[in-house]
Amino acid sequence: YRRGRDTAGRLPLVTSPVRPTAPLRATPPRALLVEADAPLRRALTTLLQVEGYEVTAVDTVFGTHALVRLLAPAVVLLDLELPYRSGLSLLPHLQADPQTAPIPVVVLTTLPALLPPARRPLATAVLTPPISAATLHAALQTARSAWLVGQACDGQACAQSTIAAAREAVAHAQ
Fold first, then answer.
1. What confidence tens digit (pLDDT) does each residue in 76-126 have?
2. Which residues on adjacent β-strands are paired with residue 57?
3. How many angstroms separate the CA atoms of 76 and 126, rounded?
4. Which of 42, 70, 144, 149 is geometrically suited to a Cys-Cys bond with 162, CB 3.0 to 4.6 A?
5. Helices H / strands E in the chain, number of each
6. Are 58 and 64 in contact (CB under 8 A)?
7. How far apart are CA 174 and CA 164, in angstroms?
8. What are φ and ψ of residue 40, in 5° steps?
């Protein structure tokens, strides 16, 4: 330690050795899982954790838009067949909100016909059971790519063309 005065000679000056700081740890990406079926929700939570995600899981679409805004997850996994209100109703709200629009949404459904062609572009990927770990991994990679493209692209056309290419990779993995 050294005690002294500042360069003007008026204020006390104390210097101390530099202490090393703790190594920086990357915050794990967050996934928001919206799934009504409890056993499937638990299984998907485990798979997402194995993939390195911190998971927030809910069983209803009510309040989910606000939750997406609050958490800003790296990906949303959304079941379409939820009680009381379909997950399909959330998609346009997420897309219309500038804060949530860049967040990729992976749709989970046993009935892909529930997702009309007009709303299909709102989903980064669509998964139908059985969902293997490899299929989920491919969908998460697509979602990550879509998120990165959304950050880098200057417009939706750029992002949509890249997402379309990534979707083909997911379809191939299924």
1. 999 998 888 888 889 999 999 999 999 999 999 988 888 888 888 889 899
2. 33
3. 12
4. 149
5. 5, 7
6. yes
7. 16
8. -65, -40
